[in-house]
Amino acid sequence: MLITGWLWCLAGGVIAGLLAGMLGIGGGLVIVPLLIYLLPVLGVPPELVVQMAVATSLATIVMTTFSSARSHYRHGQISWFWVRRLIPGLMVGAIFGAWLATQLKPEWLQRIFSLVLLALSIRMLVPQRTGEPITGVSKRLMALISAMVGSLSALVGIGGGSLTVPLLQRLRVPIRQAIAVSSVGSLSIGVSAVLAFIVLGQQMESNEGLLGYVHGPAWLGISIASVLCAPLGAALTQRIPVKRLQQGFAAFLVLVSLELFIG
To answer: Where are the transmembrane segments (predicted)?
Structure first.
C-alpha cells in the first residue's frame, strides 16, 4: 500500500472517529467518498470500487462505533429502552441492504449515495422537536422503520447514525441520549452488513488484502485512527455546541454530494 494511501486513510479515520463520537454517526459520510477516490489508486478495478468502498466503510464503522458506544456507556447516556426497539430491525435491514448493494450497478450506487448525502445535509439544518420523549410508538412500526434505516445505511455504507439520530430526535429523545443510542445502532448495522459483504464476496477471484468486498489495508489504516479519536469526539459532545458542528458538516455534505453525483 502506498505511503500516501496510508496517510489519506489515517486522515479519514481521524475525521470519522471524531464525527462518530460527536454526532453519533459511523463516519461513512466521510469514508465512502474518500475510498471512492482512493481505491483506484490502490489497484481496485473500477467495477468494484463503489461496492468495496461501501463494505470497507462499514468495516471501519464497526471499530469506530464500538469505541464510541463504549465511551457513551461510560458517560451513562445509552437508553436501553430505545436500543431494544431499534437493534433487531437495524440488523435485518443491514443484511438486506448489503445484498442489494452487490446487485446494483456502481454508477447507480454512487448516485444513490450522493442523494442520501444531500438529503441528510438538509435534514441537519431543520430545527428539532423538544419536549417529553414519545414512547408510545408501536413495536411493529419501530421495527419497520428501523429495518428501512438499516437497509439504506448498509446500501450506501453509513453507520445509520445520520438517520437514527433524526428519528430519535423526532421522538423527542434528548440529543446526547440519541447520539449514544445511535452509536449502538451503528455498531449493529456495521457488524451485520460486514458479515454479509464477506459472505457475498466469496465468489470473487481471490485478491491479496481483500476479505470479500472489504479492502483489508484500507480498513486497517482508517480503523486505527478512528478508534483512537472516537472517545475524544464523545467527550467533546459534553462541551461544544452540537448545532454549530451540524451546520458546518451539512455544508460539507452538500459539496461532496454534488461532486459524487456529477462524477
So the answer is: 7-36, 48-69, 81-102, 138-158, 178-200, 212-233
